[in-house]
Automatic annotation (TrEMBL):
It comes from the Eukaryota. This is Heterokaryon incompatibility domain-containing protein. It holds the Pfam family HET. InterPro entries: HET, HetReg/Transcr_Mod. Residues 50-221 form the Heterokaryon incompatibility domain.
């Protein structure tokens, strides 16, 4: 794009006082002619007639040049193929294309423009477009044999070109009337169905396997569009017709495409179009900028329309995380839901914002500058957050360190002696659980794909526990550490009064409370101090939690609290207070 250094075009700033945006006029031309595009500024109140392109950017290289306002401008190969195939020989075409119509540079001015266009304009642009063109990519030989006849039918019905020969302004009444007449025409659709009756699912499988369906931004583009046409090569097909075939053939790789079709069918469902529902549903969608996992949903999320959550591409990832947590904490009227779901929401947001190594390499190759996840204590100041937890038990016995347990048979035998003192009805299950737990830890050391996460925090970390019955619950329980010592930096095995085995931070003490959270594998160890505020000791792992697991089958340790607030073994609920920085570390 313009930031590659080999583009001569320079953007003129948009008018910030109006709902202004750019349109790209794709100039007519022969198949072999250079691609020429003219960028023009317009506003929503001018009611421009245009089509919007929905596509995937693809890899940053190779690039191909076009002429943009007479200047050399480099674009990605997939966009180049889209322009080459959508271009008419006889008629200019008015398009909105994000890579061209939004300044994608890294300057402060470009980032500010991008933030405004994404937050305030994109939803409206796609909803007002005469047609949204879903570009799947170039023609495929198998598709050409089956669907090649559609091009002539589409051209005959003028499905692919607007009626104007240059940039023009019409009332919505005119182009909506034209849209309705196009939808009534079944020419091309019938031709496609006749060919489909004699075909197989090979073409549907190939089309459903294309990268387009997994892109973050298409969720908003498809969800807000009034009229959609699916395009590949020179082929054009209405969305409804295309998915009638996909539903009939149901190729094995159609999950992503069908998910988007279901989303479009339920796009007016308020409960579906809430920010965290959308983020969770599409958490595995692909994008180059991890912030788009949040920003790409805001055009659809009804609970963000008038919220204090802003799109800002100048912010680092931890700042975006803080903004989203603040939105969750302040925008809901149900305070109980906010506290119960805080840990789960924090995990969800971090999981989509923290970039994989593949994302980092892609952004590096694309010339993007994204600050890594740098925890900022200044951002965390003044944000005291409460999470509602479930009391899962109290530490009654502390055993050897994690590494001693694996390396020293005396340590493991000593722990078996501890388990032998447990009341008889619980003893068989505890021994079985310990052996499975030990096997999982050995698998971790041998690199078999197990994962263990324990974290220790400074003992003065705020972790206010509110529970009137804590003393009553644990009075008279036998506790012992059996003389076992462990460095505070190493996790150690522990037993709770609810007969759970787990790994806890090395500085845990007998009497510390174990807390679980709804819809989350996070387990916290909290210290109940008599004369001082209670404190969060760290994060632990219980044998019935998913954080000790085999990455292939995730067994035998996968029991999560249910969405309706299913309680743990002891079941008492109470609040845990922490700042934003502690929350982020607890839920990493």
């Amino acid at each position: 794009m313009s930031k590659t250094g080999r583009s001569e075009f320079r953007y003129e700033p948009l008018n910030p006082s109006y709902s202004s945006f750019r349109l790209a006029i794709l100039r007519k031309g022969s198949k072999t002619a250079p691609i020429r595009v003219q960028l023009v500024h317009t506003t929503l109140n001018q009611l421009p007639v245009f089509e919007a392109l929905s596509y995937t950017w693809g890899l940053p290289k190779p690039v191909r040049p076009i002429a943009l306002n007479g200047k050399r401008f480099e674009i990605g190969e997939n966009l180049w193929h889209a322009l080459a195939n959508l271009r008419s020989v006889t008629t200019d075409r008015n398009l909105w294309i994000d890579a061209l119509c939004i300044n994608q540079g890294d300057s402060p001015e470009a980032l500010q423009e991008r933030s405004i266009q994404v937050k305030e304009m994109m939803r409206t642009i796609y909803s007002r477009a005469e047609t949204v063109l879903v570009w799947l990519g170039p023609e495929h030989l198998s598709s050409q044999r089956k669907f090649g006849v559609l091009e002539a039918s589409a051209r005959k019905e003028d499905l692919r070109t607007p009626s104007s020969n240059s940039f023009s302004l019409f009332s919505f009444k005119r182009f909506k009337s034209r849209n309705e007449s196009l939808q009534k025409s079944n020419v091309g659709i019938n031709v496609l169905q006749n060919h489909h009756n004699h075909g197989n699912t090979a073409d549907e499988r190939e089309l459903c396997g294309r990268p387009y369906w997994q892109r973050v931004w298409v969720i908003q583009e498809i969800g807000t569009a009034e009229n959609l046409h699916v395009c590949w090569g020179k082929n054009v097909e209405p969305w409804e017709s295309f998915f009638n075939r996909i539903h009939t053939a149901h190729p094995p790789n159609s999950e992503w495409a069908l998910k988007l079709d279901r989303h479009r069918q339920h796009r007016f469902n308020d409960s579906h179009n809430l920010l965290f529902n959308l983020v969770e549903t599409y958490r595995d969608s692909q994008c180059q900028d991890p912030r788009d996992k949040i920003y790409g949903m805001m055009g659809l999320a009804r609970d963000t329309f008038n919220s204090n959550l802003k799109v800002d591409y100048e912010k680092a990832l931890f700042e975006v995380y803080g903004d989203v947590i603040n939105f969750h904490y302040t925008s809901k009227t149900d305070s109980l839901y906010v506290r119960r779901s805080l840990i789960h929401i924090s995990q969800l947001v971090q999981s989509v914002l923290r970039r994989s190594s593949e994302d980092q390499e892609l952004n590096k190759a694309n010339g993007k500058h994204l600050r890594d996840w740098h925890e900022d204590s200044d951002i965390s100041k003044g944000r005291n957050l409460e999470a509602m937890g479930i009391l899962a038990g109290k530490i009654t016995d502390l055993g050897p360190c994690y590494h001693d347990l694996l390396a020293d048979t005396r340590a493991s035998n000593s722990w078996r002696t501890v388990l032998a003192r447990v009341p008889g009805q619980h003893r068989p299950k505890l021994f079985e659980t310990f052996e499975q737990f030990l096997e999982a830890l050995i698998g971790l050391e041998q690199g078999k794909g197990f994962s263990v996460h324990t974290k220790t925090y400074p003992v003065n970390t705020n972790g206010d526990i509110q529970s009137d019955q804590t003393t009553k619950f644990f009075s008279g329980l036998r506790s012992s550490s059996h003389g076992m010592q462990c460095p505070s930096s190493q996790p150690r095995i522990a037993l709770t009064n609810s007969y759970d085995i787990g790994l806890v931070p090395g500085n845990s003490q007998i009497g510390d409370l174990v807390v679980q959270f709804e819809n989350s594998e996070v387990v916290a160890v909290v210290r109940n101090l008599l004369s001082l505020p209670n404190c969060l000791v760290g994060r632990a792992v219980l044998s019935n939690q998913a954080t000790v697991r085999n990455s292939n089958d995730r067994s035998p340790f996968r029991v999560l609290p249910g969405p309706s607030g299913t309680k743990g073994a002891l079941g008492e609920t109470f609040k845990v207070s922490m700042d934003l920085l502690t929350l982020s570390r607890m839920t990493t």
